[in-house]
Amino acid sequence: MSSRLVGVGVGPGDPELVTVKGVNALREADVVVVPVMDSGERGRAEATVLHYVPEDKVVRVVFALNERSDRTRREAAWDAAGERVAELLRRHTSVAFATIGDPNVYSTFTYLAQTIAELVPGTVVSTVPGITAMQDLAARSGAVLTEGTEPLTLVPVTAGAAVLKDALAGPGTVVAYKFGRQAHEVAEALRETGRLADAVWGSALGLPEESVRPAADLDETPLPYLSTLIAPARREGGRGGKL
C-alpha cells in the first residue's frame, strides 16, 4: 500500500484560520512534519499545528528557508530534508507537511514533493488549501482585493523591486510578499506609480505582535521578512464600475 504525503496549508499564523479539512488532515496523519530553519526556533507553522495535535506527533525538519544566495547549500539542505521525510514515509502510512499560507503558493512543500517523487516512487501526494496572507490582510485592513473584471497580481519582492514597479504600473490590485527587507524600495515604487495612498501592509497577522498599517507609513526601517503589501486597484465610477 502506497504511503501518502499531504501538504496542509495552516494559514498565516492565526490558528483559528486553519480549515476544518486542514485540522482533520493533521490529526489523521501518523506524523506531522514542520519546517524549521537551522537556527532551530519555532516557526509559525509549528506554533499553529500545536494547537491541534500533540507535540509528540510533530517532527521538526530543517529546511534552508532563508538561503537565497548559495544555491549549492540550498540544494543540499533540500536533499537532506527530503531524505528525512522519505525515511518517515517508509515507516508510516501517512505523513502531513504543515506549511504557512497555502501549499501551492510560494511554499517549501513544492520542492519537497518533487524530491519525494524521486526518493519514494509511488507516494501519493495531495494538498489541503490554506488561507493566504493576502486574504488575511484584506480582511483585517478592509482592503478589497478584486472587483468586476480587475486582475490580481501577486509578486514576491525577492525577485526585485523592479518587478513590483512593473506590476504597479499595470491595472488591478497588486499584492507583494516578502518585502520586509526592501521596504524603502517598495515605498518608492508606490510613490512613483501613484499607488501609495490606498496601499496597506501587514506583518505577523493573527499573532500578538501583529501590525497592520497604511503603506504611507513605510520608511527606511527594516520590517519583518514575511511582510505583505496590498495596493488596491484604482477604482472609479462608483459601485460596480469595473463590471
What does this molecule look like?
About 30% of the residues lie in helices and about 20% in strands. With about 240 residues, it is α/β, with parallel strands linked by helices. The strands form two sheets. It has a five-stranded parallel sheet, with helices on both faces. The chain has a five-stranded mixed sheet with strand order 6-7-10-8-9, sandwiched between helices. Strand 6 (about 150-155), helix 6 (about 160-170) and strand 7 form a beta-alpha-beta unit. Helix 3 crosses helix 4 (about 110-120) and helix 6 runs parallel beside helix 7. The longest helix has 21 residues, at about 70-90. The chain is elongated and about 60 Å long. The mean pLDDT is about 90.
Give a count of the beta strands, DSSP E runs of length 2 or more.
10
How much of the sequence is in beta strands?
15-25%
Alpha-beta classification: alpha/beta
Query: How do the helices and strands follow one another from N- to C-terminus?
Result: EHEHEHEHEHEHEHEEE
Quaternary status of these chains?
single chain
Spatial strand order of the main sheet: 3-2-4-1-5
Query: Residue ranges: pLDDT <50 for 5 or more in a row?
Result: none
The number of helical runs is: 7
User: What is the rounded distance between the termini?
Assistant: 51 Å
Approximately how much helix is present in the residues? 25-40%
The chain-level mean pLDDT equals 90
What form results from the Cα inertia axes?
elongated
Instruction: Describe the sheet with the most strands.
Output: 5 strands, parallel
Radius of gyration: 19 Å
